[in-house]
Amino acid sequence: MDDLLREFLTESAEHLDTVDTELVRFEQDPNNETILRNIFRLVHTIKGTCGFLGLPRLEALAHAAETLMGRFRDGMPVSSASVTLILATLDRLKAILADLDATGSEPTGSDSDLIEALEHMAEVGGEPVAAAAPEPVAPPAPPEIVLPEPVSRELKPGEVTLDDLEAAFLAAPGPDEMAFAPLEAPAPAPKPEPAKAAPVAAEPVRAETPKAEAPKAETPHPATEGEASPSNKVQTIRVNVDTLEHLMTMVSELVLTRNQLLEIARRHEDSAYKVPLQRLSHVTAELQEGVMKTRMQPIGNAWQKLPRVVRDLSAELGKQIELVMLGAETELDRQVLEVIKDPLTHMVRNSADHGLESTAQRVAAGKPARGTIRLSAFHEGGTITIEIADDGKGLDLAAIRRKAVERGLASQADVDRMTDAQAAKFIFHAGFSTAAAVTSVSGRGVGMDVVKTNIETIGGVIDIATQAGRGTVFTIKIPLTLAIVAALIVRAGENRFALPQVAVLELVRVGANAQPVEHINGSPVLRLRERLLPIVSLSGLLGADTVAEATGFVVVAQVGRQRFGILVDEVFHTEEIVVKPMSAKLRHIPLFAGNTILGDGAVVLIVDPNGVANQVAQGTQASAGQAETDAAEAEMTEATTTLLVFKGGGGGFKAVPLSLVTRLEEIECEKVEWPGGRPLIQYRGRLMPLVPADDGIAIRTEGRQALVVFSDGERAMGLVVDEIVDIVEERLDIEIAAERSDLIGSAVLRGRATDIINIAHFLPMAYDDWARGPRKSQKDVSTLLLVDDSAFFRDMLSPVLKAAGFQVVTAAGADEALATLHADQRISVVVTDIEMPGRTGFDLVAAMRGEGGRFAGMPVIGLTGSVGAEAVERARALAITDLVAKFDRSGLVAALGEIDASAEDALSRAA
Amino acid sequence: MKAANANGAETGPTEDFVTVHVDGVLFGLAIERVHDVFVPSGVTPVPLAPREIVGLLNLRGRVVTALCLRRRLGMAPSEARDDAGVNDRGMAIGLEQGGETFALIVDGVGEVLKLGGDTRESVPINLDSRWRDLTICVHRLEGRLLVVLDVDALLNFGSKDARGARGAEAA
């Protein structure tokens, strides 16, 4: 294929993309002449060039489209149908171009369908449109012939400046009729026919240019510099990508060499080198920056197709969608751009299809009918952040969790323990789709895994934040460029490694003379500004034996929302490194992102922070701790529970929610008294019965005995345990043990199987009447509905509530609660968890209040993890009697007491 | 892949081999596959890597994956030096495959031999299967045998993924 044709293909493809975008804009803003002019010009340019190159099919199509657009310009109203038709024409043009690209010649075929439709559409004014040029025998393009070139570059010898050309064109007579764009060649009217003539008519440029041009040179096309888009005035040059790539490689090597020189200079105190070396270093840095800049492209280039995509989807799915694009001018490396282009398109499609509800649903949910997809990009340090946000229904996390279990990606226990953000990440698994129906757009579960892979191959990270009913935000963070990254050089064991600076937040010195690394069950953690940071040792990760005493540095790293520390032995310096890909033989090791040659010539491996993060989270390493999550994520985790872990009989671990525990005590064994064969001690002026936590525990006769004290009002009970081990805060996932009444079940805490004891079992052992609710026995027992999504809390609270004298009925969610309320007429009080997945406690109460009848005034107590002002406000609006912190048992009992009291008051008043 | 090499062999009456030795065993590598012979230095070990890989080294600005022939052939580690001792002694042969450069670490490099078909023997069937997979033929030399190695087979190891990718490339 000759250069001319190649050039034409590249350029036409660009033009068509622009036209796509512009048309969609135009449809929304039909009175904008600038846009129309721009479209018209581009289509015209394509048509004109096709004439030159002897591409009759393309020319005929472009011509017909141009004619219709000419009608718009003449004042024909712009209809959606006509825009669709033009878009279809553009698609056909693209298809033909693609064929042309593949085969080198125009494919055969007929476009009469489109042409006729276009002509028909244009018929409004009654002006017959000239039929498409009959397949002309196009003359082979003479080599001198110019191509319209929307960009210009430095002149080659024999070329003339743009200004000269422009002057020439202005002077030349042409068919132009657009006063505002004298350089345009619009030809909206029937086009002069035979192809031989067409170039002249369509492309006035040609007449002047041959003599001005060097043979085969690309000519700057002044027509494109019309005032329609003044920004095009910027002098640009089209450079082959390979040239740039080569330049980049060379600069990379130069950077390496400079680094080597610097390294040598560091060792020799010879000052003679210093000054020139500094200059060299400076110049290299600037050169690097300059070359980098040539590779930079605005991210808008990757977004170009999106308005069209969204428009088409909007029509296909019957949704009203608005695409908002912010920061399109943000620049990033073209290599990076290439990689993220398709993922972005895919994600926007997904947002449109899955994220946004149908118009009817939106209206029903009280949202604006038009859904919004917001695409934004901005720089942040050495990375670029891209957000794709929709204001749709949010991810169906329950469905995702269910699906993850169904597909065997995680166990039920894992899934329940995961935070929402972690669970949401399942959508990145191959073949994972929760869409109920497969649409032509998405739902086939193809793609999100590719999206993630693509982003990760360029060292990027992707995160999801989703809120039911409010929408989903995907955040992609990618490095600006791939070729050269700043990296921290560290030593672990005997080897040096490079850690990309992007992931590094700070360095903390640890060890004997500095801040110590503490261990919880062998997992190293570091106190960092009042928070615990899980730590992994780099050499440990890499399979070396870790030394018990941790000294050195902790590199605090953040990947996505996960923050962790990487323990290294030594930190050297930061160096700009050229990332070289890992050998195919080693690519399967997830911990390395590549390798590089340092200034001293040594090869070092680049540690992939993503890989480390995965290892931290998986806890595959013995010393890997629980990944600390960001505050934002922590807020999303509703059900972490603080548990007291102790050793019961037989050395097994047992736990009880800390909220139920009054105190931890250690008593002298001599103080235990055995009146009537039951162990008691005098405790704070009263007698407190002791109950072993397990049959296997014998109360010690000498030394000290650990006790967990539970109290309720005036009564206290000491649970005898072997040893208090730990206090942990974790998401609880309990496997209910059916056959043992002393256990609620067991759960995995910090990697150990732990029995969760049932306090309700032990209380009656201490006081026979405890469970019978002594304070309420004189009254009629009222029935209470306890709503909580967590089986654990239902089991935990039921005995408490029973002890407070209620019949307890439970429900696991708002819907079940409503059904239960209808079914069970005895229910007179509702205690509900506020934070529940799906419909919240507030939703439940709103539904109850909405139904009226006995539900309208039914007292409700809300249980919430955090009592914020907003929640209080909302509770008041829904006439919720009281909001009680989730673990505040006595608060709950007190609140229930008040309800009873007021009910009695009401009764007595009525009587 | 063997076929490809065999075809190469049939184009002329004689073949040139670079000879290398490990533990006194003489091996031959087709000369057109050998890009470099150099002394390996500054090998960076790669943790978690397949056993055969000794590490990465810098060969004139290129990062090269160093592969130990001894380990590749499952031979006993030499008593003279431990596993990390590749930096001290030995030679490396630069090989290329799929656009990547590898360094094959051997005990030493000998002369280049021009051998004809007359001394060529097929691989004895009683050879260890691991060797059989990596060997093209054996040449009878005076006083000793030369085991001709299949370079592509040598470099075809590691993760399953790598093998799959290689297969795809070959196709």
Automatic annotation (TrEMBL), chain A:
Location of region: Disordered: 184-232
CDD domains for this protein: CheA_reg, HATPase_CheA-like, HPT, REC
Gene Ontology terms for molecular function: protein histidine kinase activity
Keyword terms of this UniProt record: Kinase, Phosphoprotein, Transferase, Two-component regulatory system
Modified residues (Phosphohistidine): H44
Record-annotated Histidine kinase domain positions: 212-482
InterPro entries the record matches: Bact_Chemotaxis_CheA, CheA-like_dim, CheA-like_homodim_sf, CheW-like_dom_sf, CheW-lke_dom, CheY-like_superfamily, HATPase_C_sf, HATPase_dom
Stretches assigned to the Response regulatory domain: 783-900
Domain CheW-like residue range list: 484-618, 640-768
Record's catalysed reaction(s): ATP + protein L-histidine = ADP + protein N-phospho-L-histidine
Comp. bias regions, Basic and acidic residues: 205-219
Pfam families according to UniProt: CheW, H-kinase_dim, HATPase_c, Hpt, Response_reg
4-aspartylphosphate sites (modified residues): D833
EC number(s) per entry: 2.7.13.3
Domain HPt: 1-100
Gene3D superfamilies assigned: 3.40.50.2300, Histidine kinase CheA-like, homodimeric domain, Histidine kinase-like ATPase, C-terminal domain, HPT domain, SH3 Domains
PROSITE patterns: CHEW, HIS_KIN, HPT, RESPONSE_REGULATORY
Residue stretches of biased makeup (Low complexity): 195-204
Protein name: histidine kinase
From TrEMBL, chain B:
Residue intervals of the CheW-like domain: 14-160
Pfam families: CheW
Stored InterPro entries: CheW, CheW-like_dom_sf, CheW-lke_dom
Family annotation (Gene3D superfamilies): CheA-289, Domain 4, SH3 Domains
Entry-linked PANTHER family: CHEMOTAXIS PROTEIN CHEW, CHEMOTAXIS SENSOR HISTIDINE KINASE-RELATED
Name by which UniProt lists this protein: Purine-binding chemotaxis protein CheW
